[in-house]
Fold this protein.
Amino acid sequence: MHELDPTNLEQAALLHLLDQSNDCLFLTGKAGTGKSTLLRYIKEHTRKRHVVLASTGIAALNVGGQTIHSFFKLPLRPLPPDDPELSTARNQIYQTLRYTAAQRELIRSLELIIIDEVSMVRADVVDAIDRILRAYSRYRTLPFGGIQILFVGDLYQLEPVITGEERGILDRFYRTHFFFGAQVFVHHRPPITIELTKVYRQSDPTFVGILDRIRCAQASQTDLNSLNQRYAPEYQPQDEELVITLGTKRRQVSAINERQLGLIAEPAHSFVGQIEGEFPETSLPTEESLVLKVGAQVMFIHNDRDKRWVNGTIARVERIEAEEGHVYVRLEDGAIYLVEPQTWENQRYTYDEEERRIRTLVVGRFTQLPLKLAWAITTHKSQGLTFDRVIIDFSDRAFAAGQAYVALSRCRSLEGMYLRSPLSRRDVIVSLDVPRFYAHANNEGEITASLERAEAQRGYIEACQLWNRGAYAEAITALSGAIERSNELSHPTLRRMLASKLQRVPQLQRQLEEQRRHIARQDELLRGLAQEHTQLGDECLSEVKDARAALRCYDKALRLDSRCLGSMIGRGRALLQLGKANEALRSLRSALELSPRSLEANYHFGHALHERRHYEEALQPLLKAFEIAPEHRPSCRLLVDVYERLEREDDAEFMRRHLRSISKKL
């Protein structure tokens, strides 16, 4: 279990929004503010069905989740908004992704998606996620299909990696490549930003202040002078000192580790890890074949359950018992421990329909000593780690935005830092888009508005539930309160219309009670009440986007009037949205049997068969709808698509010409 700081107001605000609202959120904060701890707490305590995703395999391994690309099966290329392979036109997105029934059900079950290390997620990837979730969820008009997204990360740290070729494609669509530049946030409400400000990692307030200003590219000359007092180009650690070097390039870091290992006049021992099942090489937390020597400097890459070390603890190999495969290490405090192999699991998410919950499925395992050579490490791999003594080697000046801040904030104190080259103002790079976006962090107005919207939404749901139970007066009160809390239904005309409809229901209910003794008039009254429930069901489908509430309304209408054509059709539409295709077809077939000349019954029956890809069967009802109303454009458009899929191009062209002639008349 992970406990939180009860005095941290930003943590409390984030948890309150996550629990009460459905808005997209962005959790951020400088190094050492507890983002990872809060993320683990959310995973353990949230009541929402959720998955955790990350931009890289190692990051996904650290948070116990999947990569974004493996979960959504995204191609590893730019994904511009006009990408034809992710278009809903002609159902192309379904042909591209080819999700299994289990994958589709998993997406439909989600209430929350957590995306960690979002600083490295491009805007086009976020837009692709939005398109996929809309296509596979029940709420296609809502951002991300109505699923809440919690983005986690620090945009002042490492930025999205984009090649020149990718930039040439994406710059036509995006002003910035950070995740918040996605078009879904241009057309809809951007995420509410909660920035954690209390630092738990560094204890020196002067050093914390310098890091804050470096992070935002606001460092003074005094700050740079303070840091450059740690300039020590000739510094070499003593033999027993545990000091790690941070570099910008993998080849630079590998060269340091190989050189230092080669200087040790001890035999090398290779420890080969075991891979079971599916475990991509890019997700391995350490080398599959780990070469160690007595005296080698190593770093733990996993927290010890007995808390003897944590991820990032530096140690030195004290003894190797090759035949037994034992490795002993000495920590900085002199304690010597036998290091046991650790097993990492490669997980996939799946949905358990019986228990209606999301489960993790282990598809692969990797067992190896939780160690890696650690005379040097890249700045990128050092994210989330802290060290007592650090050599920062930026002598090649190969800086990217945020890299200087990441490197400097890895050290617990200024005294433990050694700079191979002096830091200048030009080395501190921050994208101008980031501070502009952060200007809205911890905005009390946005937080309050989000909570009010959430409260109003609960009011609408309560009103529907009361209506379905026949508590019409209470439903009016609940709906009125919801309208007062939300401006979305504040138009006076709409309010009068809704009130008028709602106020008729208690009157009908009283009349029904009075007329129970008069059997001859009962059917007419019941049909009228059934129509009211049918209208409410239609409103739930078209306005509230709540197919379950609509289904309850239609079922109630059919209990009142078993021959209510509108409810039969509406019930079929609602069941189709809920993924219950067979039940939907039965309901629509009953409507067609009741009224063979009904335009709506023929059209929706044909539409349901089309959704099931039964194109031959869909032709008859769609042609009947065309016969009844030749100018009914939805039927004509579906006929075009059916003919195309059946490769009847002449018929498809006829319908296309007919559609054009209709359009000219309008």
In short: The mean pLDDT is 86. The chain is about 45% helix and 15% strand. The CA atoms of residues 29 and 35 lie 7 Å apart. Residues 519-544 form the longest helix (26 residues).
